[in-house]
Write a structure and sequence with these properties.
Order of helices and strands of chain B: HEEHEEHEHHEEHHHEHEEEEHH
Number of helices of chain A: 26
Distance between the termini of chain B: 50 Å
Strand content of chain A: under 5%
Largest sheet of chain A: 2 strands, antiparallel
Oligomer: heterodimer
Shape of chain A: globular
Number of strands of chain B: 12
Structural class of chain A: mainly alpha
CATH architecture of chain B: 3-Layer(aba) Sandwich
Largest interface: A-B, 59 and 60 residues
Helix content of chain B: 25-40%
Number of helices of chain B: 11
Distance between the termini of chain A: 35 Å
Helix content of chain A: 55-70%
Structural class of chain B: alpha/beta
CATH class of chain B: Alpha Beta
Radius of gyration of chain B: 22 Å
Strand content of chain B: 5-15%
């Protein structure tokens, strides 16, 4: 199977080189569209189906047939599979998402491209991976760390440098060790620009350090704002980070350490000492001190629990995760294993409000849609305030419902446009999907609710939908996607 | 379904008969937040203080470049569009305003300010949210609007709050052009939903119904006002439309971001100068456009904190403390800079007080930001229950309104 797929990939690659772009996309769509099963088992409990729940939180929602698959293999087996993404064949997604040139560049070699190209490619890549990757948990964690270590493409040269940050920092360490992730981020060219690290230097004895990155490292990336650090810790951390620069001219955008701009004196941070003369290794020590701090374990445990379980993270689970963080030296896989198999996770069904990116992704996945994520689709994300890599400040897109309640109208309008194939470049195989859901009697409101929401419909839901059922089929499906229950997961 | 029967149906579902909507939004408070901590020392320039020029050898606005306000202060040259409003007494400045936040964190300080708290004393909800909850008038779907994509913290807890970018967007678009029928179904579904999502759905549908009449009507600003072609000015234009349409707008929020000028801030030109131009251009057009309505609108310009008094080694300024607050409107006692000049001596830890705890240094804070907000709430909006908005807080008189 694998070798045939490779041959297929190769053939398409060759063909793609000779075909115009749109023809190439049509070909990929025809060959790489993941199939919709002929029939689907619909949940029948009044509670959301546990497999549906897992796919709603640890993935960007179920693709047609995913719920049956998880049910058959068991949740724990699915979690283990997802924790080892390198073993998951992702050919179909790769066909859509791998072909953007700019995402493969080394730091700094993106300067030959125009900004709109860079912006479009990294954005489309991100959305296509979320929609089509079989490594769904990896993609969800990429989203999580992208928020945690937020970088806005529009600041300075970040747009040239974020593609390599996405690949070499976020994706490389998304399921690795927390400390490695933070260390990679600390001297990532994009981060050195975004939080002014490249300006942080000590040339003259009177030079004052630029504290921007050091502050966010402690406040957002590691200890958290209540983590017990002082302004002196921020200052001392900034001193340890002096001297990291970006090249200009030849090899523009690559990182080097300039000892002459480094403050090489002794530093006192969080009760620990970084001895004088550490030079470029000061940053290693700083990241180690910050990552090993108990407040960091608590902070990361809280953020993960908030993202995966509840806006008000249960203290019991946060405590357990913090212990796992400490015991495993910040092993992200171990954290996720504990989190996703916890009772708190299993109990928290249907209570989280989907953020716009998740809303759009879960709509398109549930619909089995075919898209190459062109601008018309991206515009909906921007309109709802969650365009990838567009969040201006270092705290990343908020995880709280209150920030997103103003987006309902745009969600409704997206649902009505998408299902009836009015979003240009997005195709929904509605009849095929309806057949799989309803067999000989498609478009029954009860079946649509069971399929899209993952549980039996309530009377309050069925009443209004039945009142509508003699009208347009696409709009009936849209109404389910516009319903309050589909805004939650 | 005909339009009138649809409306009747929606109204029935929402239990909101037309007569229940009392005239609200007689007065509108517009809150502009400069995200990132604006360096107001280079906006309202203390040209009479030599220390300012000593601390900012490259960034200072030269006395000859500033626009004279009085014997001590001058505007940044790019604030020129606001000079008429200042001279005519509609634009007032309050110097050395700030919070007691010691963290130097944008998010902490913004949240604290938007929540209306003192440091470490969490109240719950935003200050505007609490105001809207505790004032006596009827809530309407357009009581609180933010121009942008997300609702700011200050409106947290508001009975209703909507995020929009323009009035034209406020409609449901279905391929079958049966928005009315679809609205009925959505209304029924969201009415059956308890909690925040249900409330948000109902508020959204109600808002759509309210603005139906505004949509499509061409808008021409009054008094020859010309809005700049940027998001900030567009936002102010939409706020002006809503104010003039008298749809019950009580609080409007709008952000202007990008003020975190750690690096290469510029002086009379450059990064910050461009932002100042945007700010002044937008506010001046808004002020002109409002014309006769000026007396029922007050605009406040807030930022989370000021910046250090001295420039850093990368030609920028780091996080500081106090800032100068702008207030614009017919009820504002303008044409002057309120409050004392604290001087530019960086306070040391031995000189701290309740408003100036150990933390990032900068311009000393002399006026708690809530004193200004309290005055606007009581004197402009006529709110009587200040302790509901700012519990356990005794405002000091600012004499701004």
């Amino acid at each position: 199977m694998n070798s045939t797929r490779r041959a297929l990939l190769k053939a398409i690659g060759l063909l793609g080189a000779t075909l115009p772009f749109t023809a190439c996309e049509r070909l990929i769509s025809s060959l790489a569209q993941q199939s919709i099963p002929e029939s689907l088992t619909l949940p029948d409990s009044s509670e959301i189906d546990p497999s549906f729940h897992l796919l709603s939180r640890a993935a960007y929602g179920p693709w047609p047939g995913d719920v049956d698959r998880v049910r058959a293999m068991g949740a724990e087996a699915w979690i283990e599979e997802q924790l080892n993404p390198e073993n998951i064949d992702d050919t179909f997604c790769d066909l859509r998402a791998r072909r953007f040139e700019t995402i493969w560049h080394e730091p700094g070699t993106c300067y030959e491209y125009k900004k709109p190209v860079l912006r479009e490619e990294i954005t489309r890549h991100t959305l296509l991976r979320a929609l089509y990757s079989k490594r769904q948990l990896l993609e969800v964690m990429v989203g999580f760390w992208t928020d945690h270590l937020n970088i806005n493409l529009e600041k300075g040269d970040c747009i040239y440098l974020k593609p390599s940050d996405d690949r070499l920092v976020i994706r490389a360490h998304a399921l690795g060790k927390f400390r490695d992730l933070i260390r990679a981020s600390a001297t990532s060219p994009a981060m050195l620009v975004y939080l002014d690290g490249k300006e942080n230097q000590k040339k003259e004895p009177s030079d004052v350090p630029n504290e921007n990155y050091a502050r966010e490292l402690l406040e957002l990336h590691t200890l958290g704002v209540d983590g017990g650090y002082t302004q002196t810790d921020v200052y001392e951390a900034a001193r340890s980070l002096t001297g990291w620069k970006l090249r200009t001219g030849w090899r523009k955008g690559t990182v080097y350490f300039d000892q002459t701009l480094h403050d090489d004196g002794e530093k006192h941070i969080l009760g620990q000492v970084i001895p004088a003369g550490g030079g470029e290794h000061d940053v290693d020590r700083l990241v180690e001190i910050a990552s090993n701090h108990p407040a960091t374990a608590h902070h990361i445990a809280t953020k993960l629990t908030r993202r995966f379980v509840s806006e008000d993270p249960p203290a019991s689970l946060v405590q357990r995760l913090a212990s796992v963080f400490t015991a495993t030296d910040g092993d992200i896989k171990s954290l996720l294993r504990t989190l996703l198999t916890s009772d708190e996770f299993k109990a928290a069904r249907g209570l989280k409000f989907k953020r716009p990116f998740q809303y759009i992704a879960s709509c398109l996945r549930a619909l089995g849609a075919d898209t190459h994520a062109h601008q018309p689709l991206i515009e909906y994300l921007q309109r709802m305030g969650q365009g990838p890599f567009q969040y201006p400040t270092p705290d990343g897109y908020p995880d709280r419902i209150a920030s997103w309640l103003g987006t309902l109208l745009w969600r409704w309008n997206f649902a009505f446009s998408a299902v009836s194939n009015h979003v240009p470049t997005v195709t929904v195989p509605l009849e095929q999907l309806a057949q799989a859901i309803g067999g000989s009697t498609p478009f029954q409101p009860a079946q649509l609710v069971a399929y899209f929401i993952g549980r039996r419909a309530s009377d309050a839901e069925l009443g209004p939908l039945r009142a509508y059922q003699n009208q347009d089929h696409a709009e009936l499906v849209s109404l389910v996607l516009a319903s309050p229950a589909f805004q939650r997961c | 379904m005909s339009n009138t029967s649809r409306r009747a149906f929606v109204r029935k579902l929402l239990l909101a008969p037309e007569t229940a909507i009392a005239p609200a939004g007689e007065r509108t408070l517009v809150c502009i937040f400069l995200r990132g901590a604006a360096d107001t020392l280079n906006m309202v320039v203390p040209r009479g203080d030599d220390e300012y020029y000593r601390l900012r050898p490259t960034l200072a606005i030269a006395a000859s470049d500033g626009l004279r306000l009085d014997d001590f202060y001058a505007f940044h040259p790019n604030l020129a569009p606001l000079l008429p409003a200042f001279n005519e007494g509609r634009l007032g400045i309050v110097q050395a305003v700030g919070t007691d936040n010691p963290t130097g964190s944008h998010f902490e300080a913004q949240d604290q300010m938007e929540h209306g708290e003192s440091y470490g004393h969490l109240i719950g909800g935003g200050w505007l949210g609490r105001y809207l909850r505790t004032r006596s008038a009827e809530v309407t779907p357009l009581s609180a609007v933010t121009i942008g994509s997300s609702i700011p913290e200050s409106l947290r807890g508001a009975p209703t709050a909507s995020a929009i970018e323009s009035i034209e967007e406020l409609q449901i678009k279905t391929p079958g052009n049966d928005a009315a029928a679809v609205s009925s179904i959505l209304s029924a579904m969201y009415s059956a939903e308890v909690g925040m999502v249900g409330q948000a759905g109902k508020a959204t549908l109600d808002l759509l119904w309210r603005v139906e009449s505004l949509r499509g009507a061409a808008y021409s600003p009054e008094g020859g006002a010309v809005y700049l072609d940027d998001d900030f000015s567009h936002g102010l234009r939409e706020i002006a439309r809503l104010i003039k349409a008298q749809v019950g707008l009580e609080v409007a929020c709008l952000d202007l971001g990008g003020w975190d000028t750690h690096f290469f801030q510029g002086s009379t030109s450059g990064l910050q100068a461009a932002l100042i131009q945007q700010l002044a251009g937008g506010l001046a057009a808004f002020d002109r456009d409002l014309g006769a309505q000026r007396n029922r609108v007050t605009t406040l310009v807030l930022t989370e904190f000021g910046r250090r008094t001295y420039e850093n080694s990368s030609l920028g300024t780091d996080h500081g403390r106090g800032f100068a607050l702008f207030a614009l409107g017919g009820m504002v006692k303008g044409g002057k800079i309120h409050g004392q000049w604290p001087g530019l001596v960086e306070e040391s830890s031995s000189q701290t007080d309740s408003l100036n705890p150990v933390g990032p240094s900068g311009l000393k804070v002399l006026i708690d930001y809530r004193s200004v907000l309290s005055e606007v709430l009581t004197k402009f909006l006529g709110h009587r229950e200040l302790n509901q908005v700012f519990p356990n807080f005794n405002p000091q008189p600012v004499d701004l309104i």
